[in-house]
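Review form for a predicted model. The reviewer records the input and the model, then writes brief findings.
Reviewer: anonymous (R2)
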Amino acid sequence: MIFSKTLIAWYSNNKRDLPWRKTIAPYYIWLSEIILQQTQVKQGLPYYERFVRDYPTVFDLANAPESAVLKLWQGLGYYSRARNLHATAQYIAHELNGCFPNNYTDLLKLKGVGDYTASAIASICFNEVTAVVDGNVYRVLSRYFGVDTPINSPKGAKAFKQLAQTLIDKARPAEFNQAIMEFGAIQCRPKNPDCESCPFAKGCVAFNTQAIAVLPVKIKSAKPKKKHFNFLVLISKNHKTLLEKRKGKGIWQNLYQFPLIETKKDLDYNAFKDLVDDHSAVKGKSFELSLYNEVLVVHKLSHQHLYTRFWIVTTDDEVENAIPISTVKDYAVPILIGNFLEVFNF
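Model under review:
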């Protein structure tokens, strides 16, 4: 009880002024929580504001085409979140008449909603006593109580959830959950936490045993795979180019990209041109090939690193399924392609 009172008192004096803290409407809380998964507040805030502006209700979001939702999401990464967001909005709008489930158990059944998000919505919107556990909470609890169980292990996930549940203020679950997340975000930071002004310093195991740098413990993930991506930026005589929609369950599902040739290693000009000669987009056509970036662009994803080159392909021939270059920026593309479009002058 002392822990929760101290935490909530700190929160009342230090919390940031954020738009989703001015409402308990499930749609806005859900929207903010999905956007903030794997995303810091400073990055996610403008996206939240744009989504609220363009889709002020769950019905507006449900009725939007997926391509528009993905376009608005562009730059946030982890695009499965956007696809799940759209699918869940359609389910709530069309199957539940716009009403969100009002408890943790039913919220957990929604696509894209896990333990953390269900707990956040249930406590903030419906005052249910269910503790949130995210990266910030793991850090606060592991440091204060000196818990060295790996946070990304099944044992750790269960142990920290149980610990958080014993600490939550049963009279004020919404405040407690928001307080502990905020405390981890701005006070008990991953690096350079503000221990000198921390109200928990006296009882913090990590602070008093010089273990701040080693807690929380996390099992190292497998080394990311290294892939070589070569994008063909086609420019035809009538100022058209070619985009293709990614299919399957891999990265960037349903986003658009320039035609891609993936290779096992970085190739020199002549070796790569032989591959381009056989590509369906230009096979049998007369074209010129030039390399846009001499220095590889390295795009790091959670499980793979993409070593990328953009190749400019110019042709005077007609290209099947080509689109006007002026419309390229209307398509939802991965940030890797979006960054290229920002600097390349068609």
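Findings: The chain has two domains: 2-214, 225-343.
Further findings: The longest strand covers residues 225-236.
Recommendation: see findings above.
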